[in-house]
Amino acid sequence: MALIELNDINKTYNNGQPLHVLKGINLQIERGEFVSIMGASGSGKSTLLNILGILDNYDTGTYHLDGKLIKDLSEKQAADYRNRMIGFIFQSFNLIGFKTAVENVELPLYYQGVPRKKRQQLAMEYLEKMGLTPWANHFPNEMSGGQKQRVAIARALITQPRIILADEPTGALDSKTSVEVMQLLKQLNKEDNITIIVVTHEGGVANETDKIIHIKDGIIGKIEENFSHAAWQGSAMK
Amino acid sequence: MRELFHEIGSSLRQNKLRTALTGFAVSWGIFLLIALLGAGNGLMNSFMGNMEQYVSQSISVEGWRTSKPYAGYKENRRIQLDNKDLEYTKGKDWEGRIHNVITATTGKSVTLTLGGNSVGAWMEGKMPEHLEQEKLQMAAGRYINQGDMDACRKVMVMSLAQAKELSPQKPEALIGQWVGAGEIAFRVVGIYHTDEQSFRRSSPIPYSTYKRIFDPSDKIESITFTVEGPRTLQEHQTFQEEYGGAIKRLHSIAPDDQRGIWIRNGYTENLQMSNASRILTIAMWILGLLTLVSGIVGVSNIMLITVKERTHEFGIRKAIGAKPGDILKLIIAESVSITALFGYVGMLLGMVACEILDKTVARKGVNIGFEEIKMLVNPSVGVDVAIEATLLLVLAGTLAGIIPAWKAARVKPIEALRAE
C-alpha cells in the first residue's frame, strides 16, 4: 500500500449555497516522493491539503495514511495523528509570537510528553541543521522571513513525521529566499528520504518537485513526472 | 506541572495589560470581601462588647404607669411593686422555674466626700447576686455579701473612676475607709472596674441597709430573677405573658395594657443579639460574594476576549498536535493562576486595611454623653476565613475559565488557523 491512498474523496461545504469542492479525488503518493499539488485559487487544492493534514474531514470516500484509515476520528485522535505523522509548513509560518525559536521547535514534543531536557536538545539539533543555532533564543519578530520558515521546517521535522505538508511555503518570501527554502526541502527529500507534498499556485515552485499533480474544479487533471525539472518554461522561479 | 506553569508564565507576560486588568478585578473583589468581613467583625465585637456590660441572663420586672382604665381605676395610674409581688414570684406557682430572686431599690443621688475630695454618686440598694447579674469585675476588695445584708452594715462599693476622684494617688487605699454620703458615713469595701472611657456613678450599698435608712416601706423598685425552662424566643414570649399576666392581675391592670409593668428579658435580648450578629455576618458574606462575582464575571469576560484573540495560536497548537484537553487545561490553569495570584494579593491588602482600621478608627471612641464607646473592636478576619476565601478563589478561577476554555477547545483547527 502506498503511503497516502485517496479513494473517491468528496467534500461539500454547506455555507448557505452548497459548494461541491472535491469531486472524487483518487490519488496515491509513495514513500520518499517529492510532490506538488498545483491549481488556481478555488480549485480545491487547499481543501485537499487540509484533508491530507487531518485538519478537515471529508464526506465520502476513504483516506489511508501509512495504512491507517483516517475517517471520523475524534478530535483527540486526530490531534495525536497530526502530531506523530504529519509536519506542517505554512505560508505565514504560524510560529507562536511569544515563544523563542527553540521553544517553537520543541512545542510538538511538549504535546507528546517528551521531557524538557530531551526536547531542548532535539530542538537545538534541528535548528543547527537549519543553520539557525545563533538564533535559537530569538523571538520570531526578530528574524527574517527565510529564517522564520526554516524555524517552521525544523518544527515540522522534529517529530520525524511520515509526510511534510507545505502550504504555499514560499508565498510570503522574496524570490532569493524562496529558492533557498525550495533547495532546503529538496535536500531533505533527497538526503533524508522525507516525503514532501507542496501545495502551490506558482509554476516555478512546482517545477522544483519531482511530480506535479494538477487539480482543477475539484478533480485531478494530469499528473506530470518532472524528474528533469523542465515542466516550467519560464525562469527557474518567478 | 512545571511545563504548564512555564506556558502560563510566558502567555501572561506576553499580555501584561490584560493580565493587570484581570488581576485588578479579582484583587478588588477579594479586597472588598476581606475588608467588609473584617469591618463587620469589628462592628460585631464592639456591639457585643458594649452590650455585654448591661445585658445579663436574667429577667427584671418594674412598675410603670397604666395606659388604660380597668377595674374602676383610671388610666395613668402609677404601679408600685411591693413585697406581695416578691412573695408571689418566690411562691409555689413558680417553683422550679424561677430562681435567684433578688430585689433592688430606687436610687438616690448623693455626693461622696473624703477629706477635701468629692464625687457625685447614685446610691442604690443591691444584693450580693447583683455582682453576677451586672457582670461587674472587682478591682479591689469585695462586693456586698450576705453578712452585710443580715447585719444591715453601712458599707459601700464604688467604681474605679469614683475612687480615683476621691483618692487620686492610690484609689485602692480607699478600701476600709469611711466616706461621707450626706449625713451618713459608709465604709468602702470594694471597687469595681470600669473600662478606660466610661464613668459609672452607681455606688451600691446593701439592700437591707438602704431600706432601713432611706425607705422603710415594703415598696420594691425591681425584681430580678433567673428562669429555667424557656429556651427559644417563642418559649420566652409565652413565659413572659404568663408571668406578666399574673403580676397584672395582682395590680388590677388590664391584661392587654402594654405599659402597666415593664419586663426586661435579658435572655431574649441575648437571643436577638446573636440573631442580629448572625444576620450581619450573612449580610457581609453576601455583599462580599456579590463583589467577588463581579470580579469573576470580569475574569470570565477577559478570558473570552483572550480566547478570541488567541484563536489563531490555538489553531497552530492544534495543528501540531494539541488535543482539546490540552487547550482546556491551558486556559483553566491560566485563569486559576490569575485569580489565585491576584486574589492572594487582594487578600493581603484586605488584611492590611483591617490593620489600618484597627490602628485608626478602632482606637478612637465615640462620646455618647456619659461614656465613650468604641465603634470597632479588633476588626480582623480569622485564618479559617482566609482559607475559605482562598478556596473560593480557586473555585472562582475555575468557573471563570470554564466557558472560555470550552469555547476554545471546541474550535476546529482549520477554523482557528483561518482566524486572525
Can you put this structure into words, describing what you see?
The complex is a heterodimer of chains A (238) and B (420). Chain A has seven helices and ten strands. Chain A is of the alpha/beta class. In chain A, α3 runs parallel beside α5. Chain A is globular, with a radius of gyration of 18 Å. Chain B is α+β, with helices and mostly antiparallel strands. In chain B, strands 4, 5, 6, 7, 8, 9 and 10 form a seven-stranded mixed β-sheet that branches. The radius of gyration of chain B is 33 Å and the shape is elongated. The mean pLDDT of chain B is 83. The A-B interface holds A 50, 53, 55-56, 75-76, 79-80, 82-84, 88, 90, 94-99, 103, 107-108, 110-112, 116, 155, 159 and B 2-3, 10-11, 13-14, 312-313, 315-326, 412-414, 417.
Quick rundown:
With 238 residues, chain A is α/β, with parallel strands linked by helices.
List its salient traits.
heterodimer, A: 238 residues, alpha/beta, four-stranded antiparallel β-sheet, 7 helices, globular, B: 420 residues, alpha+beta, 13 helices, 53% helix
Blueprint (SSEs and pairs):
The complex is a heterodimer of chains A (238) and B (420).
Chain A: E1 4-15, E2 17-29, E3 34-38, H1 45-52, E4 60-65, E5 68-69, H2 75-85, E6 86-89, H3 101-110, H4 116-129, H5 145-157, E7 163-167, H6 175-192, E8 195-200, H7 203-206, E9 211-216, E10 219-225
Parallel strand pairs in A: 3-8, 3-9, 6-7, 7-8
Antiparallel strand pairs in A: 1-2, 1-4, 4-5, 9-10
Helix pairs in contact in A: 3-4, 3-5, 4-5, 5-6
Chain B: H1 2-14, H2 16-52, E1 59-63, E2 81-82, H3 83-90, E3 98-104, E4 108-114, E5 117-126, H4 130-133, E6 138-141, H5 146-151, E7 155-159, H6 160-166, E8 178-181, E9 184-192, E10 202-206, H7 207-214, E11 219-220, E12 222-227, H8 233-250, E13 261-265, H9 266-309, H10 311-319, H11 324-359, E14 365-367, E15 372-374, H12 383-410, H13 413-418
Parallel strand pairs in B: 5-10, 7-9
Antiparallel strand pairs in B: 1-12, 1-13, 2-11, 3-12, 4-5, 4-8, 6-9, 8-9, 14-15
